[in-house]
Each structure stands twice: as structure tokens, then as C-alpha cells.
């Protein structure tokens, strides 16, 4: 499985520090606590460095002069210093724990919010496990970095500087001996950082891939079991975890190498200082107390030096996590309404090339009851020149719509290549076409799940790009072939499609329309939780709830992608009857595969080779269009069941 990598062009060249600086806006609100905690840690660490000085005083003073009271006083000082150091480190932890948990929660919320606003095309490109791992593992790494390495790189740095000054002040010769390994240690750290960065990035991406496999096999457990694919899934998982294990071992080897250098060289230097110091004490050039203090200081600096390796490793992992976090956060969210119109909606063509010959095209010019189903939408408008005109641009109109998936292979033809279609106000249009002809794609353009590549789509004459997302989604409701339900109650799932103030009455009406009354018989009625993705319901039940969600807001425009595909014959007939009522009040585009669904609509459009090849009634197209007749052939006998 390919690993989802950075797509931002500047990411690879950015240093770890510059990358980590991007966290500042999130850290800023808690900066005082963080700085306060760092200050407390510096004081605690430097208190530790006072201990060798007390030792020096103890050895050269009370011990040399055999003064028991002085020794007891020295021991008390040491005890108090140790206690103070421990308390201050405890205080530091208390200071950062709560605010940093808050930073992590805020960053996670921001990521989630941003993910909701990213276009569908982004989600098509990214494996869900990669997004999941960014919201979990990566953010945890960042919190750990802010809590620990960020503070301790500073604290240990200050402690090292203070410690070195103390050592040089005590005896500069010994000081230089101990400082000897500084250059090779720094060089090792630089080389380590580069190598570890690459390994850390790889490991975190591989965790994302692993998460994807786990997520897919949990969600697709029925397919996995049904096709006996558990072994191959387990194999795929095993291979990925083996690869991840390899990367983690590489990280461990790098850590071991830097640890080896960082621990060994200073230890050798301390050993050398001990020898040189002992000789100088023997020669009377140095007091025993100074040597004890010097060596104690050198040993007190062991932890700050030894910890550099894993602090750098954790910082590098945090830099990688930041990079991965911002790869998502930097992705452009979907644009809302456009400022300027692409074209004046008033200039929409008056004559519709597909309007056909009026009543002869099978569309009722007037209803049998004498009223117009188009209601107010068909009222004549007054043109600028004073003459009345019919609202020819009303309803849903596709004008020269071209569409190419952003991630389609270069050079591949567009899925839609000049679609012209007009669905009149109040009319329902079935969309028929061969598998893969682009029906779902065309329906996805109406709620702007994808943006048209060229051409435009208008709702009652207004380019959909000029409507805000909120306006657009208030006008257009959709039900997809794969009905996704959320882990929430039936009522919450259905009312998701309704205005905020919608209540029980709307819910019951929608359930009745979608023939989803089974919901009332569930254990807690419409308050029943339908579980992860509604898996506890049958396919047909889920489809009916999705349909209820689409109609609950009484949308002006309804887009249905094969809404009856999972229903049995009897339920389908019942839903069809109910849908007819809904369709009578809306302008609808319905993807249909079967004549029974096609017959719900006033007219049918045939999508072929990226264009609308024919428009007419089901019977007209059956007679006049060979491709349509062929597409419907399989189900032609089902026609009488649903005949209107
Ligand atoms: N996210 C995507 N990225 C790239 N290509 C895509 C994407 N989704 C669909 N396609 C391609 O677009 C074409 C049209 O797909 P679409 O799902 O719209 O067809 P359809 O007519 O609805 O098919 P069906 O009747 O089988 O549901 C197909 O060739 C498909 O492979």
C-alpha cells in the first residue's frame, strides 16, 4: 500500500525548528504557564548544581576540620536542596499538564473542523487511516513534545552552560578536559537529527497505513468474512506491521548509536578528569574538596547530556507530526459563494434546446386537475423590454457542464463533457446511463461536492457558485446510493436534513413519506441509536432513513442517487408511492437503473459518453433510442408494476 506523503512543496526543505514554530498560535494562549514551568525547572535543575558546591564546602571545611556539627549542617543543606529540587520538578509538571491537554484538544478540534470543510476531492485522495493517525498519534506526540523535550532542551541547555561555567571556575584545566568531547557530540547530534527525521517520517506514515488497513477491515468485516479474506487481510496487516517494525528498529539503532556516542565520550572525559585531578591533588595544586565538587558537578551534568539523544529524537518526531498535521491544515477548504457571477443569470437562454415540442414530449402541459404543478414558478416574468417571458431559466439547469476528477490520470477524458439539461420547476427527471457513465458524478455536482471544471449549473437561474454553501444545501437535498447513517438516534439521523427548528411533526412526516415507519417499532422508537454507520439496520431500512433525511426539509430540489436499489419489491412499491407525493412538490433529478424508478419521473435523460444523448419520456426513448432500450431491456417486464 502506498504511503500518503506530504503534498506541500515546501515541507521537505523545512528545518525541524521552523516546522515546530508553526505550533506557536496554539501554544500562545498557554505561553505564560509554559515559560513559568520552564523557569521552575531551570531553578530546580540549578539547585541540583549547588549540591556539589555544598559538598566542596563540606569536604574542605567541616570534614577536614573534623567538625561534626558542621557535617550535620551540611547534610541538612543537602537534604533541603534535594527536597527543593523534587518539589520544583513536581510543580513544573502540575503547571503544564492541564494547559497542554487543552492545547492537544484544541488542535484536534481544529483538525476535525477543517476536515469537515475540506472538499470531497481531498477526501478522495487521502486514506482515512492517514487522517486518523494525524488526529491521534501525531497529536499525542506533539503534546509529549510540549510537555517534555521543549522544556528540557531549554532546561538542560541552561543547566549545561551553568554547570560548565561552575566547572571552569573551579579549575579551568579540568574544565577543558571535560569539554573535550563537545565537538564530536555536536557533530553526531547533527548527523543523527537528519537521519532520524527521515526514519520518524516514514514510521508515522506507516502507522497511518496500518490504521487504514485496520479501519477498512473493521468496516468491511462482512466482505472480509463473506469472501473468506481474513487470511489475506491478516497477511496485508502482518506485512505492514513488519515494515513498520523495521522502521522502528532503524530508529532504535540510530538512537542506540547517538546514545553510545553521547554517553561514552563524556564518561571517558570524566575519567580523564579524575586521573588529571587526582595527580594535581597529589601535587598539591588542587584541594580534595575542589576535585570532589568538580567531579560531582560533572556527574550532575550526566543526565542533561545523556538525555540529549532522546530529547532530540522526540523533538524530531514532533516536527514530523507537526509537518503531517499542517499538511491537512494547509489544504484549501472548499470555496463558498463566489463574489462575482460567472455569467448574468438573467442572460440564460430563453429557448431550451431540450424543451422538446411541449406536450408532445410527454410532459403534461397542464395537469388533469386543471392546475399547474409548476405553481408560482411558471408565472410569467416581466422582461426588461416590458414583454412577459416564461421563467425558462427556472428549475435545475446544466449548461455546457464539463467535469474531470482532480485526481484523474493525466490525459484521461473528462467524465462529463458538455452536459446540457434542463429540469423544469416542479419536474422530476430520471437520469439513466451505463455503469460508469457519470450519473453519480453529475448528481454530486449539484450540491457542489465537486466543482464543475467548465460550464455552470443553475438553480432557478442562479449559478450555484453564487450561493453560499448554507443557501445551496437548504435548497438541495440529496440521498446517495450508499446510505450512510451516523452513530446517533434515528431522529437525529433524519433531522440532520431539516432546519434547526424542525421537530417531531417533520420527523414523522418524513418517516411516513419514506415508508420508514419501522422506526417507531424499534426498541426506543425514533430515539433508538442506530449504531456505527447504522449497521444494525438492513440495507433497505438504511436507505429509507436516508430518503427520510433527504425529504424532511421539504427541499425545493431533490437529488436522489438510485434511492430504491436496496428495497424489496413490496417496499419499493410502497416507497415509490410515497416518493411520487414528494416529487410532485419538488424539482428532482433521480439516478435510475430500473424502469420502475424511471417511471417515477416525468421525463428521462440518457447520459452517454459524457453528454446528454437524449431526453424524453420512458416510452419515447424506448421506441426511439437503441441504447436506452438496451439499458432498460433487462427490466422491461417490471414496467407494469410501477406504471403510473
Ligand atoms: N473520485 C474519483 N476520482 C476519479 N475518478 C472517479 C472518481 N469517482 C468516480 N470516478 C470515475 O468516474 C466515472 C463515472 O463514475 P460514476 O460513479 O459517476 O458513474 P455512474 O454512472 O454513477 O456508475 P454506476 O451506474 O455504476 O453507479 C467512472 O469511470 C469512475 O471510475
Summarize this entry quickly.
The protein has 644 residues and is an alpha/beta fold.
Range of strand content: 5-15%
**Could you tell me how far the N terminus lies from the C terminus, measured between alpha carbons in angstroms?**
51 Å
Task: Look at the structure and name the CATH superfamily of the largest domain.
Answer: ABC transporter type 1, transmembrane domain
At CATH level 2, the architecture of the largest domain is: Up-down Bundle
Low-confidence stretches: 4-12, 340-391, 635-644
Describe it for me?
The chain is elongated and about 115 Å long. Strand 6 (454-459) and strand 7 (462-463) form a beta hairpin. The chain folds into two domains: 16-329, ABC transporter transmembrane region fold (Up-down Bundle); 397-405 and 414-484 and 554-642, P-loop containing nucleotide triphosphate hydrolases (Rossmann fold). The two termini are 51 Å apart. With 644 residues, it is of the alpha/beta class. The chain has helices at residues 16-21, 24-27, 31-63, 68-117, 120-125, 128-147, 149-170, 172-179, 182-219, 221-226, 230-282, 288-300, 302-306, 308-329, 439-445, 469-475, 490-495, 504-513, 539-551, 569-584, 595-598, 618-624, 626-633, 639-642, and strands at residues 381-382, 388-389, 396-403, 416-423, 428-433, 454-459, 462-463, 476-479, 557-561, 587-591, 603-608, 611-616. The protein has 24 helices and twelve strands. Helix content is 57%, strand content 9%. The protein has a six-stranded mixed β-sheet with strand order 8-9-10-5-11-12, with helices on both faces. It has a four-stranded antiparallel β-sheet with strand order 4-3-6-7, covered by helices on one side. Bound molecules: adenosine-5'-triphosphate (ATP).
Amino acid at each position: 500500500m502506498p504511503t500518503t506523503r506530504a503534498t506541500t512543496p515546501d515541507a521537505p526543505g523545512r528545518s525541524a525548528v521552523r516546522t515546530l514554530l508553526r505550533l506557536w498560535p496554539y501554544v500562545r494562549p498557554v505561553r505564560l504557564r509554559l515559560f513559568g514551568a520552564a523557569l521552575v525547572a531551570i531553578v530546580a535543575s540549578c539547585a541540583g548544581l549547588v549540591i556539589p558546591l555544598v559538598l566542596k564546602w563540606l569536604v574542605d571545611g567541616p570534614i577536614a576540620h573534623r567538625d561534626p556539627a558542621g557535617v550535620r549542617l551540611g547534610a541538612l543543606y543537602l537534604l533541603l536542596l534535594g527536597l527543593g529540587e523534587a518539589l520544583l520538578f513536581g510543580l513544573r509538571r502540575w503547571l503544564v499538564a492541564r494547559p497542554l491537554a487543552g492545547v492537544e484538544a484544541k488542535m484536534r478540534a481544529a483538525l476535525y473542523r477543517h476536515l469537515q470543510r475540506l472538499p470531497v476531492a481531498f477526501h478522495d485522495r487521502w486514506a482515512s487511516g492517514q487522517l486518523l493517525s494525524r488526529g491521534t498519534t501525531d497529536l499525542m506526540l506533539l503534546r509529549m513534545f510540549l510537555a517534555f523535550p521543549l522544556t528540557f532542551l531549554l532546561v538542560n541547555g541552561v543547566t549545561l552552560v551553568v554547570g560548565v561555567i561552575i566547572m571552569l571556575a573551579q579549575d579551568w584545566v579540568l574544565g577543558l578536559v571535560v569539554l573535550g568531547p563537545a565537538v564530536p557530540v555536536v557533530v553526531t547530534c547533527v548527523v543523527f537529527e537528519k537521519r532520524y527525521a527521515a526514519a520518524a517520517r516514514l514510521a508515522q506514515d506507516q502507522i497511518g497505513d496500518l490504521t487504514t488497513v485496520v479501519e477498512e477491515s473493521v468496516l468491511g468485516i462482512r466482505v472480509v468474512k463473506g469472501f473468506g479474506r481474513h487470511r489475506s487481510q491478516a497477511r496485508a496487516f502482518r506485512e505492514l506491521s513488519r515494515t513498520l517494525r523495521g522502521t522502528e528498529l532503524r530508529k532504535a539503532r540510530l538512537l542506540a548509536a547517538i546514545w553510545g556516542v553521547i554517553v561514552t565520550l563524556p564518561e571517558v572525559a570524566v575519567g580523564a578528569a579524575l586521573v588529571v585531578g587526582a595527580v594535581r591533588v597529589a601535587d598539591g595544586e588542587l584541594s580534595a574538596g575542589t576535585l570532589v565538587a568538580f567531579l560531582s558537578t560533572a556527574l550532575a551534568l550526566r543526565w542533561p547530556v545523556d538525555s540529549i539523544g532522546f530529547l532530540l529524537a522526540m523533538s524530531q518526531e514532533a516536527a514530523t507530526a507537526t509537518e503531517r498535521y499542517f499538511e491537512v491544515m494547509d489544504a484549501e477548504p472548499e470555496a463558498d459563494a463566489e463574489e462575482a457571477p460567472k455569467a448574468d443569470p438573467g442572460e440564460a437562454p430563453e429557448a431550451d434546446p431540450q424543451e422538446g415540442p411541449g406536450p408532445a414530449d410527454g410532459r403534461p402541459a397542464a395537469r388533469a386537475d386543471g392546475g399547474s404543478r409548476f405553481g408560482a414558478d411558471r408565472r410569467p416574468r416581466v422582461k426588461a423590454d416590458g414583454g412577459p417571458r416564461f421563467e425558462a431559466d427556472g428549475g435545475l439547469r446544466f449548461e455546457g457542464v464539463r467535469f474531470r476528477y482532480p485526481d484523474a490520470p493525466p490525459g484521461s477524458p473528462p467524465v462529463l463533457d458538455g452536459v446540457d439539461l434542463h429540469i423544469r420547476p416542479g419536474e422530476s427527471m430520471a437520469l439513466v446511463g451505463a455503469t460508469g457513465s457519470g450519473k453519480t458524478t453529475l448528481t454530486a455536482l449539484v450540491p457542489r461536492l465537486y466543482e464543475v471544471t467548465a460550464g455552470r449549473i443553475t438553480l432557478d437561474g442562479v449559478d450555484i457558485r453564487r450561493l453560499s454553501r448554507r443557501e445551496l444545501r437548504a435548497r438541495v437535498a440529496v440521498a446517495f446510493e450508499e446510505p450512510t447513517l451516523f452513530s446517533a438516534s434515528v431522529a437525529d439521523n433524519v433531522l440532520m436534513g431539516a432546519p434547526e427548528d424542525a421537530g417531531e411533526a417533520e420527523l414523522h412526516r418524513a418517516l411516513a413519506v419514506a415508508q420508514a415507519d419501522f422506526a417507531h417499532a424499534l426498541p426506543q422508537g425514533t430515539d433508538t441509536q442506530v449504531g456505527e454507520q447504522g449497521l444494525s439496520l438492513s440495507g433497505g431500512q438504511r436507505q429509507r432513513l436516508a430518503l427520510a433525511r433527504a425529504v424532511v426539509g421539504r427541499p425545493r430540489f431533490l437529488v436522489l442517487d438510485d434511492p430504491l436499489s436496496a428495497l424489496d419489491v413490496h417496499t419499493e412499491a410502497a416507497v415509490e408511492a410515497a416518493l411520487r407525493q414528494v416529487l410532485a412538490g419538488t424539482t428532482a433529478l433521480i439516478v435510475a437503473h430500473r424502469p420502475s424508478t424511471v417511471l417515477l419521473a416525468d421525463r428521462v435523460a440518457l447520459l452517454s459518453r459524457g453528454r446528454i444523448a437524449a431526453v424524453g419520456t420512458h416510452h419515447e426513448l424506448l421506441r426511439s433510442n437503441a441504447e436506452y432500450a438496451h439499458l432498460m431491456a433487462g427490466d422491461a417486464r417490471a414496467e407494469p408494476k410501477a406504471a403510473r
